Amino acid sequence: MPEFRRVPEADTETFRDLVRYAFRPEAGPPDDEDEETPAAWEVGTRYGLYDDGDLRTVCKLVDFETRVRGDVHALDGLSAVASPPESRRQGYVRDLLAGALRESRENDVHLSALWPFKRTFYGQYGWATCSRGVEHECDPGDLAFARDRDGGEFVRLDADDWERMDAVHDAHGERYELTMDRTEEWWRKRVLTGWGDDPYAYGFERDGDLAAYVVYDVDGEDDGKVLRAQDVAAVDHDAMLALLQFYADHDSQVDRVRFWTPADADLMDVIPDADDVEASLHVGPMFRLVDVPAALEALSYPESVAGSVTLAVADPLADWNDETFRLSVADGEGRVEPTADDPAVKLGVGALSQLYVGYRSAEELATVGDLAGGDEAADFLASAFPERPTLLREGF
Fold first, then answer.
1. pTM for this predicted structure
2. What's the order of all strands across the beta sheet hosting 45-51?
3. pLDDT surpasses 70 at 214
4. What is the CATH number assigned to the segment(s) 292-384?
């Protein structure tokens, strides 16, 4: 029977080969002269599914802490899911994902997130979209209007500035659910270190205080050089304009700039010639509850909400979630217990997960058929889980 467990040091090379084939097949088979292991590779814990001693499929779990409705919760980032051709379509990946959820649950981690290679693949196992962002691309000159702002200066940053950057990141992410509490390791090994070449990092200071930063690279593409912003944060509107000025000031070096904003940003209302900017809305990572009762009890609820509802949760991967629960809310806290009562609401674990973080409202879920229940139950869920802006920006 397949066994999910940590990958020992002896199987590290096999693990790397599987991941390399899955994500960089164009690089060809590895050889003894391959480059040194990037620092980014060191982040996370390696796991695999073994069958008769053979490593069939692999993944990593990355420890995070994230903010949801005023509290900090542990979250496992599921990454590097890889399976070689000889192990595919035999149920190994499903077993791997189930094993990863069990591992998270045993470690009292109630939340899971991943970046999908195909949304419907992970959707069938209970993960659901939890965040969106807008990618903008334009000529640097289209942002020249931002030079009209006054004050401040640009400074070059490096890994030793991570605490200053972290303060800006936290201020920018304060209004968004799923903002991560970044660690020093994450800043040094994932944000400010590349898989190949390291990115540039610049900041905008006012009176010596960092108010914005951008981590970026410059790539030569078919249409010329492109400045590509990878990580961006600003404490206020003026600091955001300073970043636009920074992009504009590269007009002698690059042909295009490409950067992202949260889905609710007002950027297109700020740029005078917004028609010249290509803006594309992108769905982001996917999220799910690992342990429904534990996650619901760990959440803080609006103090004004009091009442209860019975929820029939469908979970195709975690049988401990696939049942009916009664959620009772009072004084900002929730209590969950299994029940044999008829459910007032039926929904999948993915829809419940979106409701949990505020990405979709109860009304929206009901409208599209992802939540079935009466008006009274839906109204209770709407008050217990008000819609909130989300932004999960980490790549893992």
1. 0.93
2. 3-6, 45-51, 54-68, 71-82, 111-114, 286-289, 128-129
3. yes
4. 3.30.1050.10
